[in-house]
Amino acid sequence: MICRMWHGWTTVANADAYATYLREELFPRVRSELSQHGYRGFNVLRLSRGDEVEFVTQVWFESLDAVRSFAGENYETPVISAKAQAMLSRYAKHCDHFNLSSFDWPASANGPAAG
């Protein structure tokens, strides 16, 4: 399992709109288009720091080949829509790809996901 991790920052004013875009537009489209090509889900981390908000996206794929099928041979370059770019104040020019080495999510934590 591969985690494609990327960082982007918004102003405080754009943070909620960007979070909504990720949750309601981007990731539903990714799920629809890539589920048959090794996409397995996502996590978004959010941290307010002064006058900006950092977002860390963690997108899960079966393999690096699955990532390449989505992002191409230059798979370490982020794929960012024009709509997202308009909301971001800055973003990392590089995606990292981690192999999942261990995982533990207690059964009691498997309730409904927070939106």
How would you explain this protein's 3D organization?
- The protein has helices at residues 12-34, 64-71, 82-87; strands spanning 2-11, 39-49, 52-61, 88-91, 96-99.
- By secondary structure, it is α+β, with helices and mostly antiparallel strands.
- 32% of the residues lie in helices and 34% in strands.
- It contains 3 helices and 5 strands; from the N terminus they run E-H-E-E-H-H-E-E.
- The mean pLDDT is 91.
- It has one domain (2-98): 2-Layer Sandwich (Alpha-Beta Plaits).
- Strands 1, 2, 3, 4 and 5 form a 5-stranded antiparallel beta sheet that branches.
Note the main attributes of this structure:
115 residues; alpha+beta; Alpha-Beta Plaits; five-stranded antiparallel beta sheet; 32% helix; globular
Helix content: 25-40%
What's the CATH class, please? Alpha Beta
Structural class: alpha+beta
Radius of gyration equals 14 Å
Beta strands, count:
5
- Average pLDDT over all residues: 91
The portion of residues forming beta strands comes to 25-35%
Low-confidence stretches: none
CATH-defined architecture: 2-Layer Sandwich
Distance between the termini: 24 Å
Q: What sequence of helices (H) and strands (E) makes up the elements?
A: EHEEHHEE
Taking the sheet with the most strands, its summary is:
5 strands, antiparallel
The total number of structural domains is 1
Number of helical runs?
3
Shape: globular
Oligomer: single chain
